[in-house]
Amino acid sequence: MDEIYTLHYNSFGIAFKWKRSPSRDLNKVQLVFRDTGLYLTFKELTCFSKLIEKTLSKPLMCTNCKNNKSCRSILMETPLPQVSFVMTHHELFEMQDLIEGTLFQLGLNDVLEKQVIKRNI
């Protein structure tokens, strides 16, 4: 785990940046959940967050079913048009937490980095 810098994690997954790698874009975030890994830019993470908000605003498909929160009935679009996921309502909330926490940490890191630059000038 010395090769990564953890940005955010929860019971569903982890988001991190590679510390160094000649074959990786160090500005992208590696998002790993279930059996999947996505390598996304800040813009793609922001888009993903908006897609989750849009999906959560829709009513559940099986409102009369008593298992509707644990049933994988939600088709989640991603910023990558060729990729989508089937998720439960709970997994979607966990994904939202993972992405929102990652965006928060990236923003905080940016602010702190700018403060350090100002102090060094």
Can you offer a commentary on this structure?
The protein is α+β, with helices and mostly antiparallel strands. Helix content is 40%, strand content 25%. It is built from two helices and six strands; from the N terminus they run ββββαββα. The protein has a four-stranded antiparallel sheet with strand order 1-2-3-4. It has a two-stranded antiparallel sheet with strand order 5-6. A hairpin with a 6-residue loop joins strand 5 and strand 6. Helix 1 (42-57) packs antiparallel against helix 2 (89-120).
List the keywords.
121 residues, alpha+beta, 4-stranded antiparallel β-sheet, two-stranded antiparallel sheet, 6 strands, 40% helix, elongated
Quick structural overview:
With 121 residues, this protein is an alpha+beta fold. It has helices at residues 42-57, 89-120, and strands at 4-9, 13-18, 29-33, 36-40, 74-77, 84-87.
Count every helix, treating DSSP H or I runs of 4 or more residues as helices.
Answer: 2
Please provide the ordered H/E string of secondary-structure elements.
Answer: EEEEHEEH
Q: State the secondary-structure class.
A: alpha+beta
In round numbers, the mean pLDDT is: 87
Helix content: 25-40%
Sheet with most strands: 4 strands, antiparallel
Fraction of residues in β-strands: 15-25%
Q: What is the molecular shape?
A: elongated
Which oligomeric state applies?
Answer: single chain
How many extended strands? 6
Low-confidence stretches: none
End-to-end separation in angstroms reads 33 Å
Write out the strand line-up for the largest beta sheet, numbering strands in chain order: 1-2-3-4
Rg of Cα set:
17 Å
